[in-house]
User: Which sequence fits this backbone?
């Protein structure tokens, strides 16, 4: 992405020579011909034949979109005498062309600028986006034709038709704004039709994502396993809007007890979501939806709390907790957890993490980023081996679905691996989770 965008200076009616040099660092925003932006094109600055004179041509290749699934567009500009090239492209909602439709990704030949004025570059938030050439994308002395490949990610949900507006400059590379040829193209695409196999959740394929137990609670991370769940693999990186977590990702959404769950990860065979806040206790239904329809509902047990420790590494059917010392050292089972520098020490206070520990006070909505560190409404108990571990406060929700406890390892513990369990809301975490202790 180009740093330090060049400033253009106007003196009365005369344009500076820098401006006349084909805007090699990118044209001003709003030059795609989009009617909602005033209909301006590169012809506002460049002089030559009439726009779309019939000698050259601009073409855009883009497929109907699957919500949230990135695709590569091809924009081609051709003219028999041109020797330098430039373009600008924008994507808008057909239902409201003043609104952006999806996001572009810059590359070595392009940049993404935000809004109709200013020099802000992506990420653009809610502002309209313009993807355009930079110097490396103008290909000086390249004859007759130029093609740019551009990555575009559509909105996460079906927003109806999307319209692309583009304008290009097939320039003669004379360093002035004369003798250039301007072309435009407009293309409308639709949401891709369904018709593929419906998503199917495997029987027993809904588990808490930390310890794979068969019950969940508010703020539980949940793993859903099945087939045809998503057309793509991605995480919610780039899909969080402001403080709001995505309730649909790559066209995939999940409802637990008819409440929308924030979606963190999708793939054809697994989807990870955050259980929404809900007071319901008992069997509830889970339904996963994508462009091909809804899955058959599958039942899972929902509890007031379903405590589970973050233990991502296993050996011999034992899951080992990842912890953090107060000086930031990663603690765990050395040789199993590749990040671990050592085991926890008896009498040491460490940070451990988990999900599904229940309600917080104040209440924290699962569909938004966590602000502050709301405490658990009720204090759980934590045991390491046969001893009860002390910890200050009740524990806090520090990130989406992540509770933190500053636990003191009982000083009496011998070196070795000890089971660690938590009891909250009448439920006890899996007995297959361990913590390594060594003096």
Assistant:
């Amino acid at each position: 992405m180009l740093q330090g965008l060049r400033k253009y200076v106007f003196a009365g009616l005369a344009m500076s020579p820098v401006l006349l040099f084909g805007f090699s660092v990118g044209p001003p925003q709003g030059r795609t011909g989009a009617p909602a932006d005033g209909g301006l094109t590169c012809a506002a600055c460049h002089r030559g034949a009439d726009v779309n004179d019939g000698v050259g041509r601009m073409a855009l290749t883009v497929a109907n979109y699957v919500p949230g699934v990135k695709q590569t567009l091809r924009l081609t500009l051709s003219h028999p005498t041109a020797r330098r090239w430039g373009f600008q492209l924008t994507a808008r909602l057909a239902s409201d062309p003043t609104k952006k439709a999806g996001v572009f990704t810059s590359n070595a030949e392009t940049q993404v600028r935000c809004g109709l004025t200013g020099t802000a570059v992506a990420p653009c938030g809610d502002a309209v986006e313009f993807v355009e050439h930079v110097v490396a994308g103008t290909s000086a002395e390249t004859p007759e034709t130029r093609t740019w490949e551009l990555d575009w990610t559509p909105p996460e949900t079906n927003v109806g038709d999307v319209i692309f507006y583009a304008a290009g400059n097939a320039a003669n590379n004379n360093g002035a704004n004369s003798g250039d040829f301007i072309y435009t193209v407009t293309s409308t695409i639709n949401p891709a039709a369904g018709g593929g196999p419906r998503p199917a959740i495997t029987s027993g394929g809904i588990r808490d994502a930390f310890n794979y137990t068969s019950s969940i609670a508010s703020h539980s991370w949940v793993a859903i396993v099945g087939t045809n769940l998503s057309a793509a693999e991605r995480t919610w990186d780039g899909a969080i809007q402001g403080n709001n977590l995505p309730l649909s990702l790559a066209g995939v959404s999940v409802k637990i007890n008819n409440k929308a769950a924030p979606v963190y990860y999708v793939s054809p065979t697994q989807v990870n979501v955050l259980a929404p806040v809900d007071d319901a206790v008992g069997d509830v239904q889970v339904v996963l939806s994508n462009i091909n329809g809804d899955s058959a509902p599958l039942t899972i047990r929902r509890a007031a709390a379903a405590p589970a420790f973050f233990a991502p590494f296993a050996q011999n059917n034992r899951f080992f907790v990842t912890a953090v010392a107060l000086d930031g050292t990663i603690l765990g089972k050395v040789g199993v957890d590749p990040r671990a520098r050592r085991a926890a020490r008896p009498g040491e206070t460490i940070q451990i993490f988990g999900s599904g520990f229940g309600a917080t006070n104040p209440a924290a909505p699962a569909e938004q980023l966590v602000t502050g560190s709301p405490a658990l409404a009720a204090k759980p108990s934590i045991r390491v081996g046969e001893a009860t571990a002390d910890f200050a406060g009740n524990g806090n929700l520090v990130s989406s679905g992540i509770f933190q406890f500053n636990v003191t390892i009982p000083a009496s513990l011998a070196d070795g691996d000890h089971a660690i369990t938590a009891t909250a809301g009448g439920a006890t975490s899996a007995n297959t989770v361990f913590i390594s202790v060594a003096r």
